[in-house]
Please model this.
Amino acid sequence: MYPVMLNLENKRVLIVGGGEIATKKTNMLLGQNAQIVIISPALTNTLHTYSVNGEIQWLKREFEITDTRDAFLVIAATNDREVNATIRENCFDNQLVNVVDSPDDSNFYNVAYLERGKLKIAISTEGASPLLAKQIKSDLNEFFDESYEDYLNFLLVAREKIKLLVSDEERKYKLLQELLEEKFRNNEEERKQFLLNIF
Model:
């Protein structure tokens, strides 16, 4: 498997199904600025709330074979294997497709992941043990606490300033290495002083 991070901004994401699995998939996609379209005769309360709030588009009906046509990413999440198979059959080779009850018919899989702002860590066991992936995520969650979100924002600002102001490649490298020191992760004053000393 080849791991990637997808930019779904303004991409049409089609989810067929309105149950708990579709809800879980939608929760993972919210906040990605994707155009999420859900096709299902009924929705969970959570999905219905998303629809009312305008966070997703809900087409209240059964799947039609032309629904996949313009989708960048398709998730077949109904509780009917035949319907899921039909959805897959009507996708093109260049579309990303996840069939929740048939990994063999999918060309991508969702993974467990930890997110701290710009820090994203994906965990996959390629289906061998979702429980192990969940446990690893829990372990990482303790190590990479909430402070990493602000720390990553600082690293971005510092890196851009170094690239802009420092021409000497050796000094540039040393400054970038220095940013990894523990003192910068939780110390706002150390961060300010570092930024002031870049010239």
The longest strand covers residues 12-16. The radius of gyration is 21 Å. The chain has eight helices and seven strands. The chain has three domains: 12-110, 111-145, 147-196.
